[in-house]
Amino acid sequence: MTSAVIDRIAIQKRTIRVLFAATVISRAAMSLAFTVAALAIKDMLTNEGFAGLGTATITVGTAGGAFLLSSMMSRSGRNIGLRRGYAVATVGALVSGIAVERGSLTMFLIGMFAFGFGQGATNLARYAAADLAEEEDRAGAISTIVFASTIGAVGGPLLIGPLGAMSESMFSSDLSGPIFGASVAFALSGLIIWLFLRPDPLIVAGGLNSQQATKPKKLGLGPSLRIAWDRPLARLAMFGLVISQAVMVTVMTMTPLHMDAHGHSKAGIGAVISTHTFGMFAFAPLAGWVTRRIGATITIGFGAGTLAIATVMTALAGEAPRLLMFPGLYLLGLGWSLAMVAGSALLTSSVDAEQRVSVQGSVEVLTSIASGAGAVASGFIFQEAGFHMLSIAGTIVAGLLLIGAFTRHRLDIGLSLKPS
Questions:
Q1: Does domain 219-420 have CATH number 3.40.50.970?
Q2: DSSP tally for the chain: helices H, then strands E
Q3: Is the pTM of this model over 0.70?
Q4: What is the pLDDT of residues 250-264, one digit of tens each?
Q5: What is the domain partition of the chain in residue ranges?
Q6: Handedness of CA 409, 415, 418, 420 (dihedral sign)
Q7: DSSP string over 105-119
């Protein structure tokens, strides 16, 4: 084994460790703010109808951040893109915390928009893990960073009580403390990236536009998405990421309301959502292992099939019995995890190196838009047609992804068997 190969392996191991640490902390920051954002808006407006405004604003910020940060990364590397994303989120969370104390909705939403850049950076971190990985190891590298989210997503909400009590004693609101805590966490994530994500994995991998002999023109959102659309495997990866996100968010968003309408306790609702989160993140290494063993295309199909089973179960949960809600929401998270890890790996491997970062960022934008649209649409469908129809819509869309993935798999088998 040559020294260059050994150095590359050593840099990859260091990269994974740094991204893992930064992701744990940034995901904790997101879980802190997401948990209290709806409560903060409810207090400001004394109206539950607009409680989802904070989440929608974060989603818009995530989409914008993913595009701007990926464009920055394609020119200057992962380090500068990730750390600047966390820096913007640090300021955004600080502004939102001050807004809670002042009772300013406009100021709060501006802060939440900037906060979304932190989520955009965290989402892009999983691609940074794949920059130096061998093709057969990309899914494993991505799944390791996704798994890091488990620790942050579980640990973050545990800090809400102590941070709330601290802010209530120092200021006036117990909701500002968790948001100020998110600001500190994002700052720490950015510091970790700045100090330790060296050498930059994207630079070592030769993925910067400036390093290409032809110096290709900077790709915008439309051209990047057309590149993904024109490549069958990249197109499947894009649909896998977008559809799995939309189905997961649409059903998950209305689950608390559905359970509450049928008399479930807050503790019971929280337990179901925790089970869902566990399914999303805890088994990401399993998703990486499955992708490596059987291939990304068929793994996306299994993810879609799992989402379909999950939404059938939730569609049958007319009065939200725990017998169906717990496994249904768990499988909803697991299906998302399978499709997301496999889709991310497939997108990375099916696009040329000089176009890869731009395409990754553009697909993240599209995924964020799907997430926001799903969250907004879910409320209307739930109100007008019921939770079962919302779930059936998810089953249909997941079924289409399932058909597409296995059709692509069969075509690939057919092409491989043709004589050259």
A1: no
A2: 16, 0
A3: yes
A4: 898 788 778 878 887
A5: 1-207, 219-420
A6: negative
A7: HHHHHHHHHHHHHHH
